[in-house]
Amino acid sequence: MDNADFSTSPRFAVVAAMQEEVSHILEHMQSPQCERIAGRNFWTATFQGHAIVIVLSGIGKVAAAITATTLIERFKVNEILFTGVAGSISASVAVGDLVVGTHLIQHDMDASPLFPRYVVPGFDGASFTADPEMSSRLTRASLKVLMQLEQEISSEIVYRFKLQSTKVHEGLILSGDQFVSNDIVRCELGKAHPSALVVEMEGAAVAQVCKDYGVAFAVMRTVSDAAGEQAAKDFAEFLNCVASPYSALIVEAYLSNTA
Q1: Local mean pLDDT, 10-residue blocks, the chain (259 residues)
Q2: Which is it for strands 98-106 and 168-175: parallel, antiparallel or unpaired?
Q3: Is domain 11-258 given the CATH code 3.40.50.1580 in the classification?
Q4: Max intra-chain CA distance, the chain
Q5: Nearest 5 degrees, angle CA 103-CA 230-CA 237?
Q6: 21 is an active site residue
Q7: pTM attached to this predicted model
Q8: Which of 97, 225, 234, 252 is catalytic?
Q9: Is residue 79 among the annotated active site residues?
Q10: Burial class for 194, CB neighbours closer than 10 Å (0-12, 13-18, 19+)
């Protein structure tokens, strides 16, 4: 199926925070090889003619930063795609929608009064910009996947999570070391960042590492909940039934578009 030379090919990395988010992707790989580094399993394989590395980052910004650094230093990747779930903080973004991050901000960064709030010391401005070309391809791949929705997800799950009119959005993603499951916190984040679409726990940390190394990155999130009191209840079922197959299909479509 694949003839990529892993010793010389540019490498593409797929990163997720939880096992369920990459389980379907691994099922599509031909004989992936596993190497354990820094407490993480890094699976290498070829797919669609591309040399790829798949890894679980673990949850939170520090875990994500360690993973991204290892991918760059040890595996010499030149593109990193972070995929997973997020909570909506925008009225325009519904459960089941896909969000491609054009910019990312660490919403819990506050070095004031030495630096403006949200600005990471040493960087200009609060946001990190995702690679435009990667993000554009990712949006196209996401739109393609939505057209396959009925083939991959049962009608019961579609009805349960009201997935009949899912959409793809592009915009600001917030990251922080906090699982947002409180309506008050959700509203506060929305007021502080009116253009933000979703909140998660890793993306902006990966963005900061990639910025330092000059490595292209993109982030795609499937909206699992509305970041309110219902978030924890919806999360596990959505992760297994919707986000996991979404991730696999989107990565496959993304790599097909870049072959």
Answers
A1: 49 83 74 91 84 91 96 95 90 90 96 93 93 95 78 64 78 92 86 94 96 96 68 64 76 74
A2: parallel
A3: yes
A4: 56
A5: 85
A6: yes
A7: 0.86
A8: 225
A9: no
A10: exposed
